Amino acid sequence: GLLTRLQTSAPTIRTLSSSKSFSQNIPSGLWKLGRLNHVAIAVPDLEKAQSLYKDVLGAQVSETVALPEHGVYTVFVELGNTKLELLHPLGEKSPIASFLQKNKTGGMHHICIEVDDIKAAMTELKKKKIRILSEEPKIGAHGKPVIFLHPKDCHGVLVELEQA
To answer: Which reactions does this protein catalyse (predicted)?
Structure first.
């Protein structure tokens, strides 16, 4: 009957459990990626952006913090599982100023992922020909060491790694 025809004509589907496990493809290194810490958004008007997330969307929004060594003002928007970082230029040499010249209305600037050992990550990434935008980690907005990976080596995304 119909059931017999369905059983004999149905394609065989391999399940993940019968194929090689994903973990075999992950290099055994001295460091590990952790959770997504934040997504950073460059904004031309910091007050308007703060108001959108706080007053319109009802999010918890931090005070503005100046980070002169990075050339930015930052504001963090708390979400249930991560944060958004609003970035606004501080000074004429701010990397956010040049980003906003190309993207007048703002936009996603970078993602930040935590790592358990930033020095080991730097060593291994250099061996794998991933360019790091500074020789040494800098102290980031959370008071922890951070590095940035070149977007051309990360499929067009500026990736920040932060010591967990």
So the answer is: (R)-methylmalonyl-CoA = (S)-methylmalonyl-CoA
- Kindly report, residue by residue over 45-80, the tens digit of the pLDDT: 999 999 999 999 999 999 999 999 899 999 999 999
Query: DSSP letter at 59?
Result: -
Query: Residue 91, CB half-sphere, CA atoms under 13 Å: how many?
Result: 10
Identity of the residue numbered 160: E
Q: Report CA 5 to chain centroid distance, whole Å.
A: 50
Q: Distance between CA 115 and CA 140 in Å, rounded?
A: 14
- Going by C-alpha positions, the residue among 79, 98, 83 that lies closest to residue 140 is 83
86 phi and psi angles, rounded to 5 deg: -90, 130
* CA-closest candidate to residue 163, choices 130, 132, 140, 135: 140
